[in-house]
Amino acid sequence: VAARPAIANVQACAPSGDDYPAAARRSEATGTTRVRFTVGADGKMASVDVARSAGPSREHKMLDRVAVSKLSECTFKAGRDETGKPIGGSFEVEYVWKLE
Fold first, then answer.
1. Which one of 9, 16, 27, 85 has the fewest beta carbons within 10 angstroms of its own beta carbon?
2. Which residues contact 65 (CB under 8 A, 6 or more apart)?
3. Burial level of 95, CB count in 10 A (0-12/13-18/19+)?
4. How many Å apart are CA 28 and CA 41, to the nearest integer?
5. Computed from CA positions of residues 58, 62, 65, 71, in that sequence, does the dihedral angle turn out positive or negative?
6. Stated pTM of the model
């Protein structure tokens, strides 16, 4: 059995312009939220935290919360070790917040 890493398709659940909080839009808050998360052997998110905030303001923290919320909607696929046993994995993803 060939080992296979856990898979996370975070593009499928990335925030869109519609997810931009109104207060963050009004204050023109932009930045990049880096989220660190772990997928368990069952293919479900086991933990998630903000590794780097989009910025220091209250509005930036709103962007961070949206990023975590959207990531929580993602589906993941557990990996397999060389014996075929399901395994999890850890990932980091960045969501870039910009006004258009």
1. 16
2. none
3. buried
4. 40
5. negative
6. 0.90
